Amino acid sequence: MPNNMLAAIDLGSNSFHMMVARVVDGRLQVVDRLKERVRLAEGMDDFKNLSEEAMKRGLDCLALFAERMQSIHPDDIRITGTYTLRVARNAQQFVERAKQLLGHPIEIISGLEEARLIYQGVSHTQHTQGRMLVIDIGGGSTEVIIGEKYLPMALTSRKMGCVTFSKEFFSNGKSSEKNFNAAILEALHQLEPILTQFTSLSWHQCLGSSGTIKTVKELLLAAGGDGLITLAGLEHLKQQMIQQKYIAELDLPGLTDDRRPVIAAGVAIMIALFQGLGIEHMEYSDGALREGILYEFASRQEQHDIREQTAKGLADMYHLDTLQANRVKNTALSLFDSVATSWQLPPDQMRPLLSWAGALHEVGLVINFSAIQRHSSYILQNSDLPGFNQEEQQALAALVRFHRKAIKAYEFTPIPNYEDQAVWRTIRLLRIAVALHHRRMDNILPHIAIRVSDDIMTLILPRNWTESNKLLMQNLEREQKYLKAMLWELQLEVVD
């Protein structure tokens, strides 16, 4: 099974995104997502010039993306710039600097092309019935599309976004009724030219696909909602923000720090959309521009231990990336062999489990990359695994459940016949192996020595390697924080 990697990079007005996926049997399997909030539109002045500070934020982000791009063939990468890079007078200056950094061309796409790709992303990732209305609220523009199945029927891109509207209507820092009314009125004015066409087409389902819409959904869920976005829910959020008076002090359950500065403008735009288009309710969709780009790429390409056989059969069934699985597995086993004696890890019990966990930790990609550790654990816990007893199956699921992200120890259930300490220490080895192979490349790891003492783990890393692999070092530094929360220490010792 080929492991063709495709990448889409979206240079948005608020955030830069990178998505990496594989093509498996004609469909996409997301293997990585990177996101940095760069606030590009925020750095555009009244004369539509990008500030040096805003450009530097963008270039710093792209320097990290450049590392990740090294493992992907240039023909399989597409980089697109949207609203801010469409309208900024000095956009070309930024684009040239970015091209030098990335060694890859950057396409500035039109609003209609952006809308078309967004629709492709949503229609390929969402189970839909009948005609649908798709809305994406970005930092500088809002795309509105009506289509059926994979065919868009009406497309538009309006010059209203959560960042630009924040600057225009909420620049005094107040979430006042006056500011809301002005923003809603302008959004309705922007929508007026397309209302007749769009309302005449009708639709069966409305889907929203942006960070703004995801945030609104989460705010309404935190307030006791059912996951659907309604005009009544939006009006309720608006009144809450008006009562709290100042945007910097907004305190709504589910509101993150990075969304706080732009949420009022986002809600105002959504209210105008609901009012103008007569939307009854909206659902959130994960699919968006990046998925649309990748689906277009995809359309152009078309031992005797029974437990070992079971693991291999599972990997084949779910079309796992065996190259990546072997990288993680082999590194994890190498680390295990180095510390098994010091950490008193029973090799006959824990080493095979670590091997299978490394081989199968990405089985949850068949469901979704987001929360893959949960999906993988669920599949392993609930599948028929010939040759595995219940305890082995439970231990395997536990290793995979905690292989990434923050560790929620309260979700761990002690496993009969297994020492908790041995399980947790083996989990730590798997986590390090996964972090080290984040770039999914062969021959990039130097010899990494490891030593352990109680709950202190030290990785000895060559200095020249750390300096040329800053993204990987960031992953390890993030892992330090995750482990510290469990009162475990990960030391990174850099040597010449």
Automatic annotation (TrEMBL):
Organism placement in taxonomy: Bacteria, Pseudomonadati, Pseudomonadota, Gammaproteobacteria, Aeromonadales
Alphabetical UniProt keywords: Cell membrane, Hydrolase, Membrane
Catalytic activities: [phosphate](n) + H2O = [phosphate](n-1) + phosphate + H(+)
GO molecular function: exopolyphosphatase activity
Pfam families: Ppx-GppA (PF02541), Ppx-GppA_III (PF21447)
Membrane topology: Peripheral membrane protein
Recorded family membership: Belongs to the GppA/Ppx family.
Any GO BP: polyphosphate catabolic process
EC primary class: hydrolase
Keyword Zinc-finger among record annotations: no
Compartments where located: Cell membrane
SUPFAM superfamilies on file: Actin-like ATPase domain, HD-domain/PDEase-like
The protein's Enzyme Commission number: 3.6.1.11
Protein name (Swiss-Prot/TrEMBL): Exopolyphosphatase
Chief localization: membrane
